[in-house]
Amino acid sequence: MSSLHHRHLAVSPDWLALYYRHPLEITHGEGRHVWDADGNRYLDFFGGILTTMTAHALPEVTKAVTEQAGRIIHSSTLYLNRPMVELAERVVSLSGIPDARVFFTTSGTEANDTALLLATAYRRSNQILAMRNSYHGRSFSAVSITGNHAWSPTALSPLQTLYVHGGVRDRGPYAHLGDAEFIAACVADLEDLLGHTRDAAALIAEPIQGVGGFTSPPDGLYAAFREVLDRHGILWISDEVQTGWGRTGEHFWGWQAHAENGPPDIVTFAKGIGNGMSIGGVIARADVMNCLDANSISTFGGSPVTMAAGLANLSYLLEHDLQGNARRVGGLLTERLRAIAAGSESVREVRGRGLMIGIELVKPGTDEANPEAASAVLEAAREGGLLIGKGGGHNTSVLRIAPPLSLSVAEAEEGAAILADVLRAAG
Known about the structure:
The protein is α/β, with parallel strands linked by helices. Helix content is 37%, strand content 16%. Strands 4-10-9-8-7-5-6 form a seven-stranded mixed beta sheet, sandwiched between helices. Strands 1-2-3-13 form a four-stranded mixed beta sheet. It has a four-stranded antiparallel beta sheet with strand order 11-12-15-14, covered by helices on one side. The chain is globular and about 55 Å long. The protein starts with a helix and ends with a helix. The mean pLDDT is 96.
């Protein structure tokens, strides 16, 4: 055990998990690569949990942070803040929500917590509809709407949460149905559920479930849900903490795969927009955002430094068409991984969109999740010079692949070759 690992264990909670048998200290990064304290270089296919969205040490972002820090680091939302207003204007213009307002937070958890506050205040109800296998953060309220027991440490809740079918396409009671029949069955389930309960405040859903293993419904499910929700006056919250900013390639926001009946009432975001800086936020139409009848501020949300980083990062993403790159390079990487998986009895499915790809591992010849294999592949990939993540529903058996959106074709091929070797070794 390293000295730093020993010190970590002495001062950190037991539940603060670390990857790898011999945990990694990352000391610096550049582009799509990082280095550890021993000088080993790794191709980063996880980006600090989908957070390093453009590139490590992106010059445009580091320059913006340095220059802003040299002027003023903090002022709070009690004062006018030019970088915050400028980033809010950009976000509103990209949101797809008419007459939108933006409130900045410091994390995705806090963003979802704020969205729940808005929805429950607006609807005067503490009942929330959430998706099975979902994850929305680690606060008391966010845990209470998380449909993944591995990330839900308490059954106590400030909300009454009801879980809806549909977030997982290929497991569960409707998995055998075609896409249209799957959507119809999930809508019927939602209709039935609402017939047995009091008025709900909102449905919160990730367009692609992140921690849940990059699983998603057929396109159009949430549009079909929207018809039902609108009849009951229930708000739709799209949790875009992992799917936003073009990562899926096909869309700038994940909800746009379900846009037939209009945009969500509320969108939450975080992670990639700051490229490692602590930024989260909520976008909502004005009447929803303005529904609170008491004062509220954010001491650290909208910090001048983080806003400067977000502006520079978003500008780089748009000017270099990183959404298009995610579509092109992500499509090539997915095809390559599916070809590799075709020769492995341990791989049940390769799924995802753009540069948000999941590889689900099972015990060979069965449909049974194999978390031991996922852990072994994670370790072997690191030995091969590749960092990936893992997740999944009932068992953590999905490899999560989410590199920075500037990934090159050569780097995609390099990472796929490493995964090919470790998956062949896994069986």
